[in-house]
Specification:
Elements (H helix, E strand, L loop, with lengths): L21 E3 L3 E8 L9 E7 L5 E6 L3 E3 L2 E7 L4 E8 L2 H13 L8
Antiparallel strand pairs: 1-2, 2-7, 3-6, 4-7, 5-6
Length: 112
């Protein structure tokens, strides 16, 4: 919580890394973040920076974000319930390699 006097302002900055916060496999995946705003007299500004996992590229973002060098960035006024989705994927050769590694890692015979 941040207590602000009338007419005051404050910058809150949070940084965290959550490696398991996306749905996908070694070849491709999606990260989804929902941010809930609150009613304020002055609009709340948001700056969001999502970085691609190592070896992956950013294939698509919703809403449109600025994509450069493995980063997707969005800055603007926060609306209530904004959903940001960033899709990642390896290169075509990287996806083939990831599929091969997954296939070779599966057991040949099941126990049971």
């Amino acid at each position: 919580f941040a207590d602000l006097p009338s007419g005051g302002s404050q910058t809150l900055e949070y940084r965290w890394s959550v490696p398991w916060a996306w749905a996908g496999d070694r070849g491709a995946g999606t990260y989804r973040l929902t941010i809930r705003g609150q009613p304020t007299i002055r609009p709340t500004a948001l700056s969001l920076d999502v970085r691609a996992p190592e070896g992956m590229n950013i294939a698509h973002t919703t809403p449109p974000m600025q994509v450069s060098g493995g980063r997707a960035v969005w800055e603007g006024v926060l609306a209530d319930g904004m959903i940001f989705e960033v899709r990642f994927q390896r290169s075509a050769l990287g996806r083939v390699w990831a599929d091969l590694v997954d296939f070779l890692g599966r057991p040949v015979f099941g126990l049971g």
